[in-house]
Amino acid sequence: MKLPDGWSPRTLAGVRTKLLNWFDKNQRDLPWRRTVNGARDAYQVWISEVMLQQTTVAAVVPYFERFLAAFPDVRALAAADEQRVLKLWEGLGYYRRARHLHAAAKLLVAAHNGDLPDDPDVWAPLPGVGRYILGAVLSQAFDRPLPIVEANSLRVLARLFAYPGDPREGEGKVWVWAAAETVLPAKRAGDFNQSLMELGALICTPAAPACDRCPVRDNCEAKRLGRQDQIPPKKKQPAITEVAEVGVVIRDGANVLLCQRPADAGRWQNMWEIPHALRMEGEDVSAAAVRVARELTGFDVEPGAEIRTVRHGVTRYAITLVCVGSVLRGGAFAAGHYANAKWVAPRELGDYPVSSPQRKLMTALADPNHQPRLF
DNA sequence: AAACCGGGGGA
DNA sequence: TCCCCAGGTTT
């Protein structure tokens, strides 16, 4: 990466020092930053990094504490039942992260006796480990000089060097990784990486950055140009697509059907969708869901309808059929797929991991006064 | 390159 | 409401 005009190696060294000093003084007290003999525990760093993907620090803290209490080390995690791992993840979202974490823990115990080695080649092939997690864990736990790029550091670097394009796309991605590598010091790489993220979280915020409190304000090219509000450009928001989610309860006497899709169900992850073609002319969406569920299962089906909007790039389906107690998106389950289904008493449903929207739906459906909203 | 995964918090 | 968040995987 080419440094802006007027930047010497000395300028760069000054930036590094200022950021590290600022971090030493201003870092937040977070549970995964606890150290033992000056070193961070690789397992704790790893867990925190995975939980923090696309998730705010405030949301993660209580989950991290619970998770660590249940699974204090990689051996405990590897030995755990997947359902218990998912249950502790319930409400965090992106459940595939938990499955990958669990699978990776098993691999590490099988292949490395449960050690978390200071070796990128061991980490790189693990499920759920990309370039960011790799750099974050190895730099923080072992002080390896590996760069990181995530939402915060991307913003800080784009502003510091006034990158004119979008650092999230195309050659911008290449540039921002090169920039992260260029600014990284040989020593204290972990603290330096964290300083970029911490600065992005506390000072160099997406809107209204607090430049007057920034330790590198005198070096920031975006500030010099007065363009800190335009750099980096805002992410394009995908169109809002309305998705109808229809909840149904499938009953056999006192029990309800609980289905969980096998983790390896692959392309069938959306198999509970009711294709438009299955809906009869003029039929309500909710009526179609009940009819199809009844035909698929042959059991009693109670209707319950909810609707919510979701923000996805393109969501083509219009009807989602939800079996009570069934869904962990990105890894769950579907009505009509019985490989992993069982009948359970309604009060036992709480023992199973379910995503929050499904939990809400289940609660509503369990309420005798609930009036399904039909559409 | 684009789509997918989810929920919470702040402005 | 809208925007954002310690990304990775799949197609």
From TrEMBL:
Listed InterPro entries: A/G_AdeGlyc_MutY, DNA_glycosylase, HhH-GPD_domain, HhH_base_excis_C, MIG/MutY, MutY_C, NUDIX_hydrolase-like_dom_sf, NUDIX_hydrolase_dom
Occurrences of domain Nudix hydrolase (ranges): 241-367
Pfam families: HhH-GPD (PF00730), NUDIX_4 (PF14815)
Reaction(s) catalysed (UniProt annotation): Hydrolyzes free adenine bases from 7,8-dihydro-8-oxoguanine:adenine mismatched double-stranded DNA, leaving an apurinic site
KW Coiled coil (keyword) present: no
Keywords: 4Fe-4S, DNA damage, DNA repair, Glycosidase, Hydrolase, Iron, Iron-sulfur, Metal-binding
Co-factor remark: Binds 1 [4Fe-4S] cluster.
Cofactor field: [4Fe-4S] cluster
The EC number(s) this enzyme carries: 3.2.2.31
Domain of life of the source: Bacteria
Record function comment: Adenine glycosylase active on G-A mispairs. MutY also corrects error-prone DNA synthesis past GO lesions which are due to the oxidatively damaged form of guanine: 7,8-dihydro-8-oxoguanine (8-oxo-dGTP).
Family: Belongs to the Nth/MutY family.
Name recorded for this polypeptide: Adenine DNA glycosylase
Organism this protein belongs to: Gemmata algarum
